[in-house]
Amino acid sequence: MNIKKLSAMNGIDFFVDTNVLLYMLEKHPAVSTMSKFSLAVSAITEIELLGKKNITLHEENKMRGILKGCEIIDFSNTIKDIAISIKQKYTVKIPDAIIVATAKFFDLPLITADKGFKKIEGVDIVILDLNRNHSLFIASTGFSIPAFTA
Asked: What pTM value is reported for the model?
């Protein structure tokens, strides 16, 4: 079975960047509706969250709890190749390139609060507007999510 089709069959709605999970942990109003959706994250996000220096047991348990609600996707050689291509074309950090590459490989919209992702083409990237008091997402690539608009 094609791994790409496996993602769609599992009903994943969105691929989310690490910062979105952090805002969910903080209960930020801009991500209040995210728990209603099926989410996937990169193994890079798991490393970023749990690899925090001097993480407390309480923080680790909270992060593991939120990760438990997500499908964690490891990166493959194909995702690595896509990430390399992204790094060659755009000025992005390696973890960000891997996260974008994973969303692109699985053809899932990527939700992020990182406005620097606006420049990346070839993947649906939805920029979270943290300046709003409600759940509103701004699409940077023409992609829209009416369910999030208050």
From this structure: 0.80
Q: Is residue 67 within 8 Å of residue 21, measured between CB atoms?
A: yes
* Single-letter amino acid code for the residue at 53: K
Contact criterion met (CB below 8 Å) for 72 and 43: yes
Distance between CA 33 and CA 24 in Å, rounded?
9
Q: Supply φ then ψ for residue 7, to 5 degrees.
A: -60, -50
Record the tokens describing residue 132, joined without a space: 């709003």
Within a domain: residue 149? no
> What pLDDT digit, counting tens, does each position of 49-97 carry?
999 899 999 999 999 998 998 999 998 999 999 999 999 999 999 999 9
One-letter amino acid at 5 equals: K
The CATH number given to whatever domain includes residue 98 is 3.40.50.1010
Q: Per the domain annotation, does 150 fall within a domain?
A: no
Number of folded domains in the chain?
1
